[in-house]
Amino acid sequence: MENLEFNSSEYFQKIYKRPVLLEAKNLTQTFKHGKTERTVLNALNLKIHKREFICVIGPSGCGKSTFSRVVAGLDAYSSGEILVDGKAITGPSPERGMVFQGYTLFPWKTVKENVMFGPLMKGQSQATAEAHAREWINIIGLDKYENQYPHELSGGMKQRVAIARALVNEPKILLMDEPFGALDPHTRQKMQRHLMDLWQNIDITIIFVTHDMDEAILLADRIVALKANPGEIKEIIEVNLPRPRHPDVMLTPEFKKLRQHVDQLVHADEDELDPALAELPVIPRMTQVSHCK
Ligand SMILES: Nc1ncnc2c1ncn2[C@@H]1O[C@H](COP(=O)(O)OP(=O)(O)OP(=O)(O)O)[C@@H](O)[C@H]1O
Ligand SMILES: [Mg+2]
């Protein structure tokens, strides 16, 4: 089925020889909650190499989105450093494309206009921006839909447009926070394959946040497992599965072994869940609702 010649230690040695693209040094993020301060990311140290596919997992509230927002440049951080190509992140930049779970397309723009937005903002002419947009719309296979509006597309299609809209700017990093979280399992699987194909064929480093451990193992070179309260790196797992990967890889003993390991890592933290979840209220019996009689 897969390439039997795959040698994982050689594969990772090659990755580690590539330049470091993103580096977090003692990255710390604290938030004020009333009078108290809460450390969400605590002295995170991480090096991500060029063209790596990194998945970030961890229990709800451990700081995955906080980390993505800091890397995206959407939020300032409290202390430490976060560098891309050795330069500190000071705000959003087209070099870091973003695809988040909520569909973030402009609803009043067509598919083509959404994808053209970045190139136009960069000062490209209408014709050049349109040509670039078309190229990416073709790559994601939505050329027949270029004049449709987001509300006329399925969830999977919207996320493909969001990916094209990010990639048209030729970013160094594609940041994805639960991008397939709202999709049905079949569409999600198709999107995972589509993303792996894209990644294999373009010069891009992907940081992909997910709750789904199977998704993380299927996609990642390395999985960064965070623990909660405060968010710290618990373990970085090298996924020693051959590439290209087909979903059938999930049936192999190697995949199952990784799955068990990742499962234990994440579930060991269940007692340290987001306090807001740990303190979920007990729902009183709603006797006034007729079907509860
Ligand atoms: N702007 C903010 N102000 C105050 N607290 C915040 C802010 N953003 C996030 N937090 C807190 O930081 C913690 C981590 O939130 P974050 O959204 O990063 O978690 P997550 O790992 O992405 O969770 P989930 O898996 O549910 O998406 C939460 O307790 C949250 O309440
Ligand atoms: Mg999140």
From TrEMBL:
**Domain of life of the native organism:** Bacteria
Q: Which SUPFAM superfamilies match?
A: P-loop containing nucleoside triphosphate hydrolases
Q: Which Gene3D superfamilies match?
A: P-loop containing nucleotide triphosphate hydrolases
Q: Which Pfam family would be a valid example here? A: ABC_tran
- Alphabetized GO MF terms: ATP binding; ATP hydrolysis activity
Report the SMART domains cross-referenced here.
AAA
Q: Which InterPro entries match?
A: AAA+_ATPase, ABC_transporter-like_ATP-bd, ABC_transporter-like_CS, ABC_transporter_ATP-bind, P-loop_NTPase
Q: Which CDD domains match?
A: ABC_NrtD_SsuB_transporters
Sorted keywords for this record are: ATP-binding, Nucleotide-binding, Transport
Q: Name one GO biological process term.
A: quaternary ammonium group transport
Q: Which part of the chain is the ABC transporter domain? A: 22-253
The text of the family note is:
Belongs to the ABC transporter superfamily.
Listed PANTHER family: ALIPHATIC SULFONATES IMPORT ATP-BINDING PROTEIN SSUB, TAURINE IMPORT ATP-BINDING PROTEIN-RELATED
Q: What is this protein called?
A: ABC transporter ATP-binding protein
Which organism is this protein's natural source? Answer: Acinetobacter shaoyimingii
